[in-house]
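User: quick one, sequence for these tokens?
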């Protein structure tokens, strides 16, 4: 690629990153950086490829340098949050997120992505204000409400979670993830009939989360319904990691019995 311009190196590297070929992308960005030292787009590409390769410290160092040059860049600030979290530096991630809120406070999707970065690390309190602000900026965007509802549920605030998740389902009726989360919240609130109706509205061939499937089985699986029982058994094996066929029915029966026991 010795005859390529810096833009061509960037485009090639990004294409490789999009194709999940981080090692090859890093090689392209690194070669471009040697030919065009100080090019900010190549530095950004190198940082993101390093992050995908698992070299978070290298990515963080490059991104800190870029922040001096691009203090208002959403890509740099998002990358800083991801890299700091991957390095086990939550305070540095929080500082970068606060800076992003100050400089990019009107961009709901950026705030949502930042919230998801914290949520994915189990830092729900840090994620909550980011999801909240995203839903305020874009009140008709279902994904923002879903993120907020999931975060509220993780923080054990089921009433707030229900409000947000109902909004998500209203805006995106075929958001099966939001329906599953809402079904779980309703179940945890003791409203089993509503929970069952919500969970049964999700197709069995949709992607299922384990907590939602456990509640569905406990609320809505009955041995007398042979066809549905077989479908749920197959789904259980798929989602729960291939439980032995001979033990699936017993596991489902036990889940159903536990749900019916008094608290």
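Assistant:
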């Amino acid at each position: 690629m010795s005859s390529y311009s810096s833009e061509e190196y960037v485009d090639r590297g990004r294409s490789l990153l999009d194709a999940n070929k981080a090692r090859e992308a890093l090689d392209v960005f690194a070669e471009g950086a040697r030919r065009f030292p100080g090019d900010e787009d190549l530095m950004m590409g190198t940082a993101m490829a390093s992050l995908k390769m698992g070299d978070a410290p290298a990515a963080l160092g490059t991104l800190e340098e870029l922040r001096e040059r691009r203090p208002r860049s959403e890509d740099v600030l998002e990358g800083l949050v991801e890299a700091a979290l991957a390095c086990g530096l939550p305070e540095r991630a929080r500082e970068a997120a606060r800076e992003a809120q100050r400089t990019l406070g009107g961009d709901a999707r950026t705030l949502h992505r930042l919230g998801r970065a914290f949520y994915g690390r189990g830092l729900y309190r840090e994620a909550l204000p980011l999801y909240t602000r995203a839903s305020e900026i874009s009140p008709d965007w279902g994904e923002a409400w879903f993120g907020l509802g999931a975060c509220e549920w993780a923080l054990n605030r089921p009433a707030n979670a229900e409000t947000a998740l109902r909004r998500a389902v209203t805006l995106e009726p075929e958001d099966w993830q939001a329906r599953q989360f809402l079904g779980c919240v309703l179940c945890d609130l003791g409203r089993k009939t509503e929970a069952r109706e919500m969970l049964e509205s999700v197709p069995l061939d949709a992607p299922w989360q384990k907590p939602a499937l456990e509640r569905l089985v406990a609320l809505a699986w009955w041995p007398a319904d042979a066809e549905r029982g077989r479908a749920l058994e197959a789904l259980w094996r798929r989602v729960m990691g291939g439980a032995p066929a001979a033990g699936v029915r017993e596991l489902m029966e036990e889940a159903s019995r536990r749900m019916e026991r008094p608290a």
